Amino acid sequence: MVLDKVAEVIVDTAHCKIEDVTPEAELVALGVDSLKAITVLFELEEAFDIEIPNEVIPSIVTVNDIIEKISKTQH
Amino acid sequence: MLNRRVVVTGLGAVSGPGINVPAFWNALKAGRSAIKPFDLPIDNIKISLAVTVPDFDPKQHFSSDELTILDRYSQLAVIAAQEAVDDAGLVCGEEMLTGAAAIIGSGCGGKHTDEATYERLYKQQRTRVHPLTIPKGMPSAAASMVSLHLGIKGPAFALASACASGSHAIIQGMSMIHSGMIDVALVGASDAPFTYGLLKSWDALRVLSNDTCRPFCKDRSGLVLGEGAGMLVLEAEEHAKTRGARIYAELAGCGMTSDAGHITRPDVEGITNAIKKALHHAEIDLSEVDYINAHGTATRANDVAESEAINRVFGDYADKLAVSSTKSMHGHALGASSALELVASTLAIHHGIIPPTANFTEADELCNLDYVPNNARQQDVNVAMSNSFAFGGLNAVIALKKYR
Fold this sequence. Notes:
The structure holds two protein chains of two kinds. Chain A is built from three helices and no strands. Chain A has helices at residues 2-14, 34-48, 63-74. By secondary structure, chain B is α/β, with parallel strands linked by helices. The chains are: A mainly alpha, B alpha/beta. Chain A binds chain B through residues 15, 35, 38-39, 41-42, 45-46, and chain B through 65, 68, 128, 130-132.
């Protein structure tokens, strides 16, 4: 469910193919540059009503990194 | 290279009459006002009139990605800039445009973005705002977006002097070409002031008309706000001639003064000196001037002060001048007005047609010039001047002449 929402936001923002948004996919490879990345995080913060702290952003490389941060924040 | 002649080779206009220069000019030469009943979905305001860009659907002009970063004032700026560049025959990616300057004025900047953000935070009590709020709303956003869309890599920046922003931007571009710094400049201004907070603020000044905009008339009741963008391509004369560009007119000179007086009331002396300086700078004798596109806001204070200043400068010759305010047709689009008015003045020279003051009834006793009431006049125009006087007492006058 989290992956579905993350994939939807990434596709809306970067206009990549939904099938390319796998947990292992690197954001840069999907066309998510640094500005698009903060847009993706903004949309996900809104969708899940969470706060993703600035400090964790440098460690976000793959789609799975985002999913992990969301899961941690939700707990 | 110093003091090169500067010519106008491209025009762009997004305004109440329409989304291009032909729509703008057709309305002006027909004396057709674009003032309409205020019908925007904004509640709780007393304003009854506005000049909005008709049938404007941003999605027809920009992708959804582009729209996430384009405030409405940037949208209008980019469309007008693209038209001006196309009109000049310049091509994106080619050196002539790549090396150009983009100097874009604005009276109010990215207000749509700012207000949407504040509404979200203060009214909706949300705690997060969109990450692109800063680059979308910043006062230089339009300059950046024009540069980005057209591939302009020369000097690009914004310029603000309220309702004279366009004129000051045009003068800045002209000066940079004069000095040899650049060969081509895209200059103008854009404003999109129809937001709740800005409308309330204008209403509080008690200068908005609920009748219509009738500059210089006895029964005038104030200005009507508009939105839009005016853009011009300026070029060094030899640059334009070498590439065989069509030359609309020569930008002959300018005069700038500031009143250092009242924050809103215009100062006759400041205006007089700006007009005198423009004539002197352009090396034009006052008897050569055919047409003045007036600042002509239709406020009580402006129209009397402006008429008096013109009389002071021109003396007996003032009777022979045609003076009109095209704000009666495109509204007062703040900084963009001054750029739209220079587009109108350029076309007056190019076509030999003087646009009228629309909605004209009877002249104010203190306004005794020929205001070209209601009907355009076919007349050879060798020299035209455009007046712009901003709140805060910032005056800019530009002189154009037929290119020979």
